[in-house]
Amino acid sequence: MKKIKVLTIFGTRPEAVKMAPLVKELESRQGIESKVCVTAQHREMLDQVLELFEIVPDFDLNIMKTKQSLTGITNRVLEGLEELFVSEKPDIILVHGDTTTTFAGALAAFYQQIKVGHVEAGLRTFDKYFPFPEEMNRKLTASLADMHFSPTVGSKQNLLNEGVAEEDIYVTGNTVIDAMAHTVKEGYVFENDELNKIDFKNKKVIMITAHRRENWGEGIENICDVLSEIVDENKDVELIYLVHLNPIVKDVVDKKLKNKERVHLLPPLDTKETHNLMNKCFMVMTDSGGLQEEAPHLGKPVLVLRDVTERPEAVAAGTVKLVGTNIEIIKQEANKLLNNEEEYAKMSRAINPYGDGLASKRIADAIEKYFE
Questions:
Q1: Do 57 and 280 contact (CB within 8 A), yes or no?
Q2: Are the C-beta atoms of 294 and 270 separated by less than 8 Å?
Q3: Which of 70, 127, 43, 161 is nearest to 306 (CA)?
Q4: Is the dihedral of CA 138, 139, 143, 147 positive or negative?
Q5: For helices 13-27 and 44-52, angle between their N-to-C axes, nearest 10 degrees
Q6: Rounded Cα gap, residues 329 and 141, in angstroms
Q7: Are 222 and 326 in contact (CB under 8 A)?
Q8: Which sequence positions are flagged as catalytic?
Q9: What is this structure's pTM?
Q10: Could you report the per-residue pLDDT of 38-49, keeping only the tens digit for each?
Q11: Are 41 and 11 in contact (CB under 8 A)?
């Protein structure tokens, strides 16, 4: 019996984290020939994840360039994948989420009339510029996909509302929950020794990431100002801000928070360090999408530094709260969690809506059934 040839494509660290457990599941199936292509839209951070999960790509487009534009990324992915698809002829390609690699990969497959499976399908903010360009990347990918792997019933409903046939949608949970079973360890010792010196037991440690382009400028400045006020007013609080290397973000953060007592400014950590930091911290403040799924799995409340989210299930479940970048609102909600045990318990004990760690198995099962 001919094996199903599945080519998994990703290019950034977040994609790699969420696709890694799926790649491992596909590799374990006798009826599937699993191949991996990385575009390396992000190079160094991507390589860290590949090493962590012991994945050696079969193909590496290595497209990353300094000061790369969205147009440049799209062109290089399209051209690189055209050649690969002609030579490899996969039965189906899998792309993830909402990156430029995702959309360009789906488009390249469409041009060769190759089936497309979209992992983490159906997330929407209903604002094409927020987040930019991710919202349109995922909508355009949905219009090209043949199999839609939605993490939740809500994301499935978004696709149904857009006219996607119900039989093409599979509610699977989110593969990031699968990944965390591999990365989070009790008694974990950090590679970054500054983290090993922090008293996680007796201090309320807040982990922060904030770098999205929608927050560049006033948004990042407001976030830094309110973080400064929070640490000044709460002597049992320590902040760990994982600062993006983009100077548009880093310069503002350094100017406002560098050398401040009980504030640790660290470069982005690899996936294993990040997940274990979340596991040890008190709460998370972020404008990231993925952390809204990951932190609740560990029982950590999340304040989302955005006005809208494509993950409304987490808001409805009570695991995350939208606070935007308004100084007063952020401060009010942070102080509730820091100083009110009942409020903290409400969020930390809420059930994470993103699954049970079996998403990769469900996706692989669906692919095998589809090609029977």
A1: no
A2: no
A3: 127
A4: positive
A5: 30
A6: 35
A7: yes
A8: 98, 120, 134, 211, 213, 244
A9: 0.85
A10: 998 778 778 889
A11: yes
